[in-house]
Amino acid sequence: MSNFTWQRAVVKVGSALIAPDGLHVSAKYLLPLARFITESRAAGKEVIVVSSGSIAAGRGRVTINHPASIAEKQAMAAIGQMQMMANWQRFFDCPCAQILVTADDLRDRTRYVNIKNTLRELLKHEALPIVNENDTVAVAELKVGDNDNLGAYTALVAQADTLIMCSDIDGLYTADPRKDASATLIPVVDSITPDIYALAGGAGTSMGTGGMRTKIEAADKCTHSGIQTLIVNGRDGKVFDALLKGQCPGTLFTARQSSQTARSLWLTHTLKTRGVIDIDAGARRAITDRGASLLPSGVTGISGKFVAGDAVELHCDGKALAKGLALYDAKDLAQIKGQKSNQIRHILGYDYGEVIVHRDDLVLLP
Ligand code: GLU
Fold first, then answer.
1. For the chain, which domains are there?
2. Which numbered atom of ligand 1 lies nearest the CA of 135?
3. Which of 30, 71, 107, 223 has a CA positioned 20 to 30 A from the CA of residue 348?
4. 90: how many CB neighbours lie within 10 A of its CB?
């Protein structure tokens, strides 16, 4: 078994664990998983759950004798989502928080920022965020479509260092273990090549949307962004004992670089700069010497028509100093520049928090 360390993980839980009979929610497989989450949190780690199973959990309540139509599946999801959340809450003393997203929400910069801020706030308040696709509003092309890829997007938004996909298979095999007795589990994958995709052929679950292919896609997205990815069998309680010891009993896809490096590269090189925020010497020192966030009091000028979520450069005395994601639109910043954070609400009538660019979203330019 390979070892791994982590600090913030997205734990993706498949329908086969939530609703093993494909009709109702069940607690059958969740106790060891819940204990893993509780003990990890007690050890100071942060966990976000991506839970499938709303459709499977609601299926038993929408009686039909033909293949379900889209509206019928959406009705199942609406009923099942509620059951699924209630089922999760039974295992935790901390509040479980429901987050439902569609592909569109992840594409829209402002909504993306809102999802990110909400997750940050929930973790700060020690709630357990539980994410699923908003199946009742999204169909086909509006969907991420499967929760493996949704798990990857969630790990990216949440700036997690690890994605753990809990399914009903032990991990990635050299061949389909149901058809080939000589198939062996691959403990570590350092590079996701076309050969690895070719292995994704069969092994999957009949219940959820995803199979091995979507798991490899998710691992591919994550490992490129510095997020290590695990596939483990969530039906086996011993798996969680191993995970608690920092051992991966399934397949570990190692990250190609640290998540911080990947993030800095993304911020510095991939994101187009949409505007400039001029800051004073005090803010410059706070950012460069103390790694602080930018507050409105340090802002002296704004140029460009950026919106919340856009990348901006921070300039001091005409020199580009840092690049980061703005949490306010340029037009709002023009009103709150130079002001104390506690005045933001008074001036704008609302606030997204006290910082203009959060330290997590900031890189110093060379
Ligand atoms: N969002 C779907 C559900 O809750 C699951 C999709 C998936 O399992 O990949 O039923």
1. 2-261 (3.40.1160.10), 271-364 (2.30.130.10)
2. 1
3. 107
4. 12
